[in-house]
Amino acid sequence: MAHNKAEVVVGGAVLAAAITFAVFAAQKTGFGSATGAGYALTASFRSLEGVNVGTDVRLAGVKVGAVTDIRLNPETFRADTTLSVQEGIQIPEDSAVVISSEGLLGGNFVEIMPGGSPFNLAAGAEIEDTQGAVSLISLLLKYVGSGGGASQ
């Protein structure tokens, strides 16, 4: 009987650890978060390298939404993007949107750089000031091609 109690205790501990891990993973990935409950804004980018539907939209480093749609505009050859922003977060109309990187090995995210206008963007409005993704490979090739800045 003591052998069965030990198995039950160990099994319970393993089950508790599995549930804790699942909750942690769900919180880190944003699974089940209500980013869909918000309002849409649009922006047009020259390059969306590393950004997909579901990519985080952040303001001051805090996730405030997600990318909900990406389409190539055949007339301008730009990536027309729809962003969902949580209700209650007002974005000034002179704000900018930048594709930022989490580091050399991290992924990209969409960052809202708030402006100073007293007027806010309405649902469906377009953010005009955008800056696309910067390719790290292109930057490295430019650096190497220029001699790397070494003194001669």
Would you kindly provide a brief summary of this structure?
This protein has 152 residues and is of the alpha/beta class.
List the helices and strands in order. Answer: HEEEEEEEEH
The whole-angstrom Rg is 22 Å
Broad structural category? alpha/beta
- Largest beta sheet, briefly? 8 strands, mixed
The chain-level mean pLDDT equals 84
Give an overview of the whole structure.
The chain has 152 residues and is α/β, with parallel strands linked by helices. The protein folds into two domains: 1-32; 38-142, no CATH class. It has two helices and eight strands. It has helices at 2-29, 136-145, and strands at 38-45, 56-59, 62-73, 78-86, 96-101, 108-113, 126-127, 129-131. It has an eight-stranded mixed beta sheet with strand order 7-1-4-3-2-6-5-8, with no helix packed on it. It is extended. The model has no long low-confidence stretch (mean pLDDT 84).
What distinguishing features does this structure have?
152 residues, alpha/beta, 2 domains, 8-stranded mixed sheet
